[in-house]
Amino acid sequence: MLIMKKLVNIFTLACAYFTSIHAIAGPLYQKKVSITFDDVPIHGEFTLSEQSLRKINKQLLDTLEKHNIKVTGFVNEGHLKNNPKLLKTLLSDWKMRGHQLGNHTFSHISYHQSELKLYLEDIKKGAVITQQVLGQQKQRYFRPPYLHAGETNESQHLLHNGLKKLNLELVPVTMENADYIYDAPYTKKLTSNKIKEAKSYKEQYLAFTEQRLDFYERASLNMFETSIPHILMLHVNQLNADSLDDILTSLKSRGYQFQTIDKTLQHPIYTQPTQAFKFGIHWLYRWDKSRANKVSWATEPEPSSDAFSAHNRAITTLKKETSHVSVD
Ligand SMILES: [Zn+2]
């Protein structure tokens, strides 16, 4: 009888413990992730040919279809302001394949360098062609360029209210892999037909992605003691067009289930207030700094200095070129 009573007590204690964790972080051990793409239909560090743009978008959409995954893409209309017809065609492909389209401003401006009024105007300006593509469907989500979401708690709050008036919700990021750092040298090597060297950047990128995923998984477990639904930010670029299959396969082998942003944002963790930051940083960092500070952020993997230098060299040469990229 005594043993039975003890067991009941242990069970009750365990339930109370798990209920409190559940209340914060949802079902235990179920890994979930939402995939998001910034800069649909192309990340704008340099100019690519129309043919390359079509190919990159098609490759990404084909890979998502292969894995049966629906994502949210944040549109940067300004980057194709001189070719609205192409912009419309590419955005229509995303919509027709069942993906959501959100807003990423027209001019890809930083909130930290703009007045709120002008910033909100730029958001409205960036929704025109997207809305024509969406028809009756409403845009619901917003991703701030550079993850600049307010330098002070007040400016963060003002942005939140401004977005609310536009019926938009800011979508945080909990995982990112510095894809743009590796994309520029990768694309540069492809345009110079240096396939072997291009491949080495892709390999570095995939290895770095694994390191970052390991780190974010450990960090979120430290912070919440269980899995939280993650939001991965990728950019629309040549490197991701060629790497997405590997990244999604890796996430699957890590045990992730994919879900849309609507579901992920319902999780209580995404309603927690966060302290404002001057620099663009993901939300795991923001939450940790706003709460118990459990993670050693100095150990977060960074791309090598070689990768940074290769990126800087590549964007200077690619900046004004119209590149035609052929990929194996
Ligand atoms: Zn962007």
From TrEMBL:
GO terms for biological process: carbohydrate metabolic process. Keywords: Hydrolase, Metal-binding, Signal. The keyword Repressor does not apply. Pfam families: Polysacc_deac_1. Residues 31-259 form the NodB homology domain. Residues 1-25 form the signal peptide. InterPro entries: Glyco_hydro/deAcase_b/a-brl, NODB_dom, Polysacc_deacetylase_ArnD. One of its GO terms (cellular component) is membrane. SUPFAM superfamilies: Glycoside hydrolase/deacetylase. Transmembrane segments: none annotated. It comes from the Bacteria. GO terms for molecular function: hydrolase activity, acting on carbon-nitrogen (but not peptide) bonds; metal ion binding. This is NodB homology domain-containing protein.
